[in-house]
Design goal:
By secondary structure, the protein is mainly α. The chain has helices at about 5-10, 50-75, 75-110. The mean pLDDT is about 90.
Length: about 120
């Protein structure tokens, strides 16, 4: 069996070490460990990184689509609200889990650890 690509495994929500086990216990809750290889995820923390990328990506897509729609079709404001508010929510939820998986896989690849002082 070949070694998995950690970033692709994280994108799919799989263990970055083996590519078999699940990285998440719920929608965004990280599993304590991989059930396939036993990799420890207890200290894995992606912080605000995924949220920042979701804001940037979803914001760009929705803002571009809204501005394009406004200049091309000139719909009433209520139609913008009906289109772009749910669109923003759906796109944000769809991007959050894969981007969190990628951030955790990047930490795993780079052997990231908490800051410490060796006094």
């Amino acid at each position: 069996m070949s070694k998995p690509q950690p970033l692709l495994a994280g994108l799919a929500g799989r263990c970055p070490a083996c590519g078999e086990g699940y990285l998440f216990d719920g929608f965004l809750k990280v599993s304590p460990s991989c059930e396939a290889c036993g990799a420890d995820f207890a200290k894995a923390d992606s912080g605000d990184g995924p949220a920042v990328f979701v804001i940037l990506i979803a914001g760009f897509i929705v803002a571009f689509a809204a501005v394009f729609t406004e200049f091309r079709f000139r719909p009433p404001i209520w139609l913008h609200l009906v289109l772009w508010l749910p669109g923003t929510l759906i796109l944000s939820l769809a991007l959050m889990r894969p981007l969190k998986g990628v951030m955790l896989a990047a930490q795993f690849m780079n052997k990231a650890a908490e800051a410490r002082s060796d006094d």
